[in-house]
Amino acid sequence: MKVLIDLCVVPLGTGVSVSKYVAACEKIFLAAGLKPKLHANGTNIEGEWDEVFAAVKRCHEEIHTMDAPRIFTSLRINTRVDKEQTLEDKIMSVQSKLSGDFNKETL
Amino acid sequence: MKVLIDLCVVPLGTGVSVSKYVAACEKIFLAAGLKPKLHANGTNIEGEWDEVFAAVKRCHEEIHTMDAPRIFTSLRINTRVDKEQTLEDKIMSVQSKLSGDFNKETL
Amino acid sequence: MKVLIDLCVVPLGTGVSVSKYVAACEKIFLAAGLKPKLHANGTNIEGEWDEVFAAVKRCHEEIHTMDAPRIFTSLRINTRVDKEQTLEDKIMSVQSKLSGDFNKETL
Amino acid sequence: MKVLIDLCVVPLGTGVSVSKYVAACEKIFLAAGLKPKLHANGTNIEGEWDEVFAAVKRCHEEIHTMDAPRIFTSLRINTRVDKEQTLEDKIMSVQSKLSGDFNKETL
Questions:
Q1: Chain D: nearest CA to C93, how far in angstroms?
Q2: Do A16 and C16 touch (CB under 8 A)?
Q3: In chain A, what is the straight-line distance between the N-terminal and C-terminal CA atoms, in Å?
Q4: CA-based nearest residue to D43, from D65, D62, D21, D61
Q5: Distance of CA D10 to the CA centre of its chain
């Protein structure tokens, strides 16, 4: 089963900056052969369910190892069986419904 | 690694009611020996990471099998390595900080 | 427009415990005449959109005033125009689809 | 109070495609003078709290008007009072912690 997720990790008990933890997760996803797409409030990843969630688990393990005693993660999970749809397909589908003027501004 | 999650499944392409899908997920968690705590906007579950996420995957598979072509899930994931904390501990910790008057009203 | 939300506030830069901040939010909701339903990973609230979101804003303001320099909130928002549905209706709808045996265990 | 949000709207009871609703929301944010940043699982928006949430409310109203009887929205909310941080700052902060090689692949 293919899955598209949007992962946002929030370490607690470690100060206000989360970027080094997000960077550590990016490296984990890349090392797993996944192609994370970073955005300002999370990271989008697509792949087979088991591979994606094995990497999410490694993110939690790694962030705890770095120094965070507690982690809160907000995750969005998308699966569909009617057709294959990539992360890029989803963006293109919205863009095709926006006029050319809006298009340039929103991406 | 212990994990506490809050799962909210939203099937798409199947009408406005989601309760039968939520009920199906409850049965999956119970069958897995987990103890789901249903609330109005999701279900709280605690357990070992691998067991919990294996059950989440089965929820997606089951909902697709029932009839939903697409599923959106909102998931909150909590892990901590500084101490053990159950779902009930979390609620009690908030309650202990509310006065007796508020206490009765908020739960 | 009526709305049902599920709010989970996570203060950053203040240590691992979040319960005192959650308790502060409960008091804000009660003071606003709303009826928060606390669960292990958040709080469910129902009411008119403007009242509910005014209270959510006050939660952020209060938590910053307490001491948290940064706040991450995970929010689920439900609106529907086909029928009125309360938080309790949502839970009852799931329960009615679970057998009596499951019923007792899941709530 | 400035806020950075990540909005993901999921209409129920209207079929499996959500892109036309997402496009409608983009137009609402643009019309409000906000600068939405679309990604594969949501839209990032930054601005003053009241302006941003007024636009979120209009999104729900518009999607109901279009035809969706029920809407589920997953929202991430970020506020901080220690410093100003834009959506781009957040991304740059992570990128600066990734090596040059990773950098190109992840964005």
A1: 16
A2: no
A3: 29
A4: D21
A5: 13
- Sheet hosting strand D42-48, strand order edge to edge: C37-39, C42-48, C2-12, C70-80, D70-80, D2-12, D42-48, D37-39
pTM recorded for the entire structure: 0.93
pLDDT in tens, B37-72: 999 999 999 999 999 999 999 999 999 999 999 999
Q: Which residue in chain B has the smallest CA separation from A12?
A: B80
Taking an 8 Å cut-off on Cβ atoms, the answer to whether A8 and D96 are in contact is no
Quick check: B44 and C41 in contact, CB under 8 A? yes
Handedness of CA B92, B94, B100, B102 (dihedral sign): negative
A82-86: long-range pairs with CB below 8 Å, 24+: A82/B13, A82/B69, A82/B70, A82/D16, A84/A2, A85/A4, A86/A4, A86/A46
Cα distances from D17 to residues B18, B21, B72, C99, in angstroms, run: 17, 20, 12, 33
Structure tokens at D81: 């009072």
Token pair in block for residue D88: 């781009």
- For B8, the token pair is 């909210």
Q: What distance in Å separates the CA atoms of residue C99 and residue B23, rounded to the nearest whole number?
A: 10
pLDDT tens-digit series, residues A43-92: 999 999 999 999 999 999 999 999 999 999 999 999 999 988 999 999 99
Give every CB contact of residue C83 below 8 A, 6+ residues apart in sequence: none
d(CA B34, CA B21): 18
CB A36 within 8 A of CB A30: yes
Q: What is the ipTM of this complex?
A: 0.91
Q: Which of A22, A34, A77, A94 to mutate to test the interface with D (most CBs of D within 10 A)?
A: A94
Compare CB distances from D10 to B15, B69, B72 and report the shortest one's residue.
Answer: B72
Question: End-to-end alpha-carbon separation of chain B, Å?
Answer: 29
C-alpha to C-alpha distance for A2 and A46, rounded to whole angstroms: 7
Cα–Cα distance for residue pair C40/C24, rounded to 1 Å: 16
- What are the Cα distances from residue D5, in Å, to B22, B35, B73, C64, C94? 28, 33, 19, 17, 31
Closest CB to A77: pick one of B13, B75, B80. B75
Give A45: exposed, middle or buried? Use CB within 10 Å, 0-12, 13-18, 19+: buried
Average confidence score pLDDT of chain A: 91
Phi, psi torsion values for A34, nearest 5 degrees: -90, 165
